[in-house]
Design a protein that fits this description.
There is one protein chain. Helices cover about 55% and strands about 15% of the residues. The protein is built from 13 helices and 9 strands. The strands form 2 sheets. Strands 1-2-3-4-6-9 form a 6-stranded mixed sheet, with helices on both faces. A 3-stranded mixed sheet has the order 5-7-8. Helix 7 (about 145-155) packs across helix 12 (about 225-235).
Amino acid sequence: MEDRGPARWIWFNRPRVHNAQNTEMLEAFDDALKLVPQDAGVRAVVLAGKGRSFCSGHDLKEIVTHAEYARAVESVEGRMRWEQRLFVDPVNRFRELPVPTVVLAHGHCLAAGLMFVSVADLVYATPDAVFGSPIIPAMGINDAEVPAFAWAVGSRRAKQTLWLDERMDAQTAREAGLVSEVVEPDEIEERIESVVQTLARIPAETLMLSKLSLRQMDDQAGYRAAAGFHFLSHSLSHHTTGAMAALAERRQRLSGSDASR
């Protein structure tokens, strides 16, 4: 985490694993988000990833390497509480920050990483960025990424991407409405800093109220209700026959592999 003028930059920093989100990362990230409303000098939050990617998703190996997580997923209620706290609440907190949020998307922007891309106010991507999620076909789970991604690009485009495990390149994502602008790697941080300076010239209360109005429009149109229903559907899907079989196979495979992802 670093402050650059009026922007607070928060970095996913597990570059060796393409910034796969583990428990430690998500807890630290959520704590960082909670600090933002307490600092009037922060006029925007920029979320970016160190190394070759923004984020490749959740660290799936934690299901065998993190004892508390492994215990939690043994029951429906345990998994729901765990995923609500770590997989859902940070995304909602990021979406609902009172200041503009910006994502710098590069490399892999997949699965859980796609969740943050989908709820950001502005997204600037390098040409190498790829967007998608393999969860539905690979794990037999009603993908947690569905609501915000589908809201951003439309249900038919979301079905094609998520059901068929396709990848959107940066330009396609821009055309679909997921990405604000595609910028060359050596120019993207400067471009984001310029955008932040423009935002900072607008009175903070004006931007906050504008963001509230736009979020209210989405929520009144059904976003929040759809997301709430989807989390229940997602939680149920973990316990279907196909998903349980896939989980057992994955646990067996991961238990015999290197514990680091």
